[in-house]
């Protein structure tokens, strides 16, 4: 979706959760940045969040969980009255970009590593919780 003439550019924020700056995940985050910028997006924050991370030990890396803890501050981002459909970030979008070290079949519903939808649920639910 591109902004119309005179409208502010859409804004994206890419969270690279990998400690190695030359990793494949860093490459994917850079590719996402360049692609969005070429489409007229500003890549810093706001309308779209893209966590880019590898699946380690069937979980998101600790650095992503730490980022969620630091950014999702009680009172500012969520509260008892401001969550889910009433969340402060309602209307914003997120897209998980995750790498794994095996085939798609491995993460199928009956795959050896488990159903990828179930493994991604904690991050997705955390995002849904804040709106």
Describe the structure.
This protein is an alpha/beta fold and 131 residues long. It has a single domain (11-129), classed as Rossmann fold (3-Layer(aba) Sandwich), CATH 3.40.50.360. The chain is 30% helix and 15% strand. It contains three helices and five strands, in the order βαββαββα. The chain has helices spanning 24-38, 62-71, 116-129; strands spanning 11-16, 42-43, 48-54, 93-94, 97-99. Strands 1, 2, 3, 4 and 5 form a five-stranded parallel sheet that branches. Strand 1, helix 1 (24-38) and strand 2 (42-43) form a beta-alpha-beta unit. The longest helix is centred in the first third of the chain and has 15 residues, at 24-38. The relative contact order is 0.17.
Secondary structure: elements and pairs:
Blueprint: E1 11-16, H1 24-38, E2 42-43, E3 48-54, H2 62-71, E4 93-94, E5 97-99, H3 116-129
Parallel strand pairs: 1-2, 1-3, 3-4, 3-5
What labels would you give this structure?
globular, single chain, alpha/beta, Rossmann fold, 131 residues, five-stranded parallel beta sheet, 3 helices
Average of per-residue pLDDT values: 92
Say which CATH homologous superfamily is assigned.
Answer: Flavodoxin domain
Number of strands: 5
Give, in order, the helices and strands. EHEEHEEH
Helix-strand category = alpha/beta
What is the number of domains?
1
Helical residues, percent? 25-40%
CATH class: Alpha Beta
Shape: globular
Number of helices: 3
**Parts with pLDDT < 50 across at least 5 consecutive residues:** none
First-residue to last-residue Cα separation: 21 Å
CATH architecture: 3-Layer(aba) Sandwich
Question: For the CA atoms, what is the radius of gyration?
Answer: 16 Å
Here the CATH topology equals Rossmann fold
Query: Roughly what fraction of the amino acids lie in strands?
Result: 15-25%
The biggest sheet, with number of strands, parallel, antiparallel or mixed sense and barrel status, is: 5 strands, parallel
């Amino acid at each position: 979706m591109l902004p119309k003439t005179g409208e502010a550019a859409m804004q994206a924020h890419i969270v690279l959760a990998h400690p190695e700056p030359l990793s494949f995940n860093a490459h994917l985050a850079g590719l996402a940045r360049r692609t969005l910028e070429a489409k007229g997006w500003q890549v810093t924050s706001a309308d779209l969040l893209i966590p880019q991370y590898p699946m380690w030990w069937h979980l998101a890396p600790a650095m992503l969980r730490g980022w969620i803890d630091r950014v999702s501050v009680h009172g500012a981002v969520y509260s008892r009255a401001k969550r889910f459909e009433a969340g402060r970030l309602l209307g914003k979008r997120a897209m998980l970009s995750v790498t794994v070290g095996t085939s798609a079949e491995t993460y199928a519903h009956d795959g050896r590593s488990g159903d990828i939808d179930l493994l991604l649920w904690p991050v997705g639910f955390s995002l849904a919780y804040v709106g």
